[in-house]
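Ticket reopened. Same input as before:
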Amino acid sequence: MSLTAVHEAHGFDPMLGAAPAWGDADLKALRKAAAERFTEVGLPTLKDEEWKYTSVQPIAKRSYVLSHEPGAARALPELPGVAARVVVVDGVFVPELSSLSSLPPDVEVVSLREACERNWAELAAHLGQIADWSANPFAALNTAHLSDGVVLKVADGVSLDAPVYVLFVTTTGRVAHPRLLLIAGEGSRVNVIAHACADLDSLLNLVEEAWVGARACITLSRVQDAADSAALVSLFTGRVHSEAGCETVTITLGGGLVRNDSGLVLAGENIHATLDGLYMGTRKQHVDHHTFLDHTLPNCNSFETYKGILDGEATGVFNGKIFVRQGAQKTDSKQSNMNLLLSRDATVNSKPQLEIFADDVKCTHGATIGQLDTSQLFYLRTRGIPIEKARQILTFAFANEIVAKLPHEPLRERLEEEIFERFASSGTDGL
Amino acid sequence: MLTIKNLHAGVEDNEILHGVDLQVNAGEVHAIMGPNGSGKSTFAQVLAGKDDYEVTEGEALLDGEDLLELDPEERAAKGVFLAFQYPVQIPGVSNAYFLRSALNAVRKARGEAEVDPMQFMKTLREKAAVVGMDDAMLQRGVNEGFSGGEKKRNEVFQMMVLEPRLCIMDETDSGLDIDALKIVANGVNAMRSPERAFVIVTHYQRLLNYIVPDFVHVMVGGRLVASGGRDLALELEEKGYAGFEQKEVSV
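Engineering reply: fixed in the latest deploy. New output:
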């Protein structure tokens, strides 16, 4: 369907608002190329293999407001123990809500716009170069609107112990296309928490790019939470270099329509990478995780565990791609996707997808879909734990394998509590 | 304490227990012995409330109250405990958390206050030491990565923490070496009291050298075919179950 036809039929105008006028000629060219790409492909449909189980009709049917003035956000979550807090509301960096004063001088956290205006030449090497927007219609749309967001740069050899907390928020009825660019210099260490919240009737279309230098060590914790009437679409790509460590955890608490494409390109040797996730859905929510791990060179490890818990009439999708290129000998890659269905009407589609072109590798994958274990339930009950509480304990235990991987304790404790409480009243139809 | 009359139970159309009668009084230790497949474990699990089994006839009363009407957690609240033959692993739920939840649930059902977390950990460590479990085992997931012997010790440990009135032990001795057997028996013997009763299901009389029973019953073909004192176990050790099995066939 052409763009105009989509617009006329449904009301979503993807190219709403003129492309931002500011920026270097190269940046303008990048936006233009992305806009052309989006115009060419349009919104994905179920006929597109990558979108087979995720209909974007809920987005296409809505009209959103795009503005470069941020709306009034609800009370924003606070997180103790962070080195910096950066708040992006409706795609616009809001300095009044951010606190960056306690950062050391060799860690830069600035608005994307300021970073582009200050030193475009340096950013040009990374911005829009890591995440492949040409293969992802929403990322192309984000790039066409590229205007603001956050650039986080850690100089070579610098360690930042406390995390940088980045909050992307959309307010009621808005559409936003923010971007995070993380540049972790060689041998640096940094811990980033990216928290995405989409409020009522909004569309948060996020692109996150990470450049991880040789011997760097980064952890990226992503938390996603969208309203039932909201949509959250994201593309995260990390480009990781030799001997680096890159650990990513994504916790999706739910949302009307959530689609993530998350992955790492292992562009070096002896890299240790993890890509883990927990997704939860209830009512009529839809949560889709597409992941990719691209092994391009020898001797890298990647470990991936995604777990899903679906209740009500929620639907989940997991699609995990692992590429092992011809030269990537001695790759050790393990993928696992486990799903717990708490109600009769919840569904999940799980698909591992391994493409291996090297002949001396270890690659395993496994997927399970099931209910709570009745023998575990009986065991807990014989010790006096009532059945509802036993279900809650077992469901939380399933989730907690992933939550426990979050490195920042205050965030981990908050989510543990939230997730434990959430399952106090789930799975009431007897499964 | 426990009165069982003509208990019939099975899975779907397959009846396993064909009329069991048993009277257990407070302070007594009863051993139920029998060959493989005689229904001993079914009996233990029916008493704990496993819903895979259907009771088709007869009754089981705990202090005059119908036990079979109660959910497993309600039975636990009334003081029934089953030490499993095959304890279940529950990764992601620490032993300590599990036991505190269990104890608080039981206390709540009895109208008692929750335990003080600090005091509870202290008690937990003391009791764990009796069965040779260390702090690391308390913090590990329930039975997660435990050896067969460690799982059985953990069952007895849980029993010591929850302090039930009626302890049903299903083949707690199987898979234990002699040292572990002594540890388990010490735990049980320390709990013997005039208010508490034990039903010990076992295949071998070896355990009964350490936990001396007041009564020994022989289960064959889903019925208790003989009852006696301690000597009956020794006789079984010598002669095996063959004599009783023949008796069963001729019935």
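Chain B has a mean pLDDT of 91. The longest helix of chain B spans residues 95-109. Please confirm and we'll close it.
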